[in-house]
Amino acid sequence: MPRSWTTRVETSADHRTVRDINLAAFGRGQEADLVQSLRGDGAWIDGLSLLVLEGGGTPVGHALLTRCHIGSVPALCLGPCAVLPSHQGTGAGSALIRALLEQARGRGERYVTVLGHAGYYPRFGFTRALGHGIGVGIEVPDEALMAMSLDGSVLPTGTISYAPPFGL
Ligand SMILES: CC(C)(COP(=O)(O)OP(=O)(O)OC[C@H]1O[C@@H](n2cnc3c(N)ncnc32)[C@H](O)[C@@H]1OP(=O)(O)O)[C@@H](O)C(=O)NCCC(=O)NCCS
Questions:
Q1: Which terminus of the chain has fewer Cβ atoms in its 10 Å neighbourhood, N or C?
Q2: What Å distances lie between residue 118 and 5, 18, 24, 33, 144, CA to CA?
């Protein structure tokens, strides 16, 4: 039977849970620390850090969007995205990312970038960033850098600048 997922915005009471989810998903502390640093950065956007809960109960995943720029144009950066290993591959991550993109669209955000698995993010509408004239200032595999427009408008071109906690 398909599982049912709900999502909600993180609150200050969720910080420990979000940390534990990131630690478990990535098997290291780097991403959990990054999320914590982003909370104190100007790139943080209240309402765009979401938890996914199994059947409305236990949180099993977390993802967030923070401010970045493509050239001088404001955009959003997706990630880190994390689902507990016990729940990976069951649709939680997809429900979470779709909800996050909807939240962003509802706020009038226009562009989202992601640096991640080229086999995963295209299902949400991301395409190879380089094909749109979008790059980053570091060496990454071409296909790992992706972007999407939330409103159908043409993506801006330029180099992505990330919030300082990303260290990119
Ligand atoms: C990546 C992640 C967030 C996806 O969440 P999820 O709940 O497992 O994903 P869903 O169940 O919604 O989707 C499953 C699909 O994602 C694919 N997928 C999961 N992890 C993947 C990966 N590392 N690379 C490519 N595809 C991946 C599965 O193969 C599956 O594909 P299918 O639908 O074609 O069979 C989750 O697996 C995770 O936390 N992984 C460890 C941390 C990580 O790598 N985060 C992303 C950093 S870019």
A1: N
A2: 24, 24, 22, 24, 5
- 161's tokens: 């600048």
C-alpha 34 to ligand 1 mean position (Å): 20
- The residue whose CA has the least distance to atom 44 of ligand 1 is 26
Number of H helices, E strands in the chain: 3, 9
pLDDT score at 55: 86
Report the C-alpha gap between 109 and 144 in whole angstroms.
22
Each residue of 75-99: pLDDT tens digit? 999 999 999 999 999 999 999 999 9
**Per-residue pLDDT at 89:** 97
User: Can you tell me which atom of ligand 1 is nearest the CA of 89?
Assistant: 11
Give the predicted TM-score (pTM) of the model. Answer: 0.95
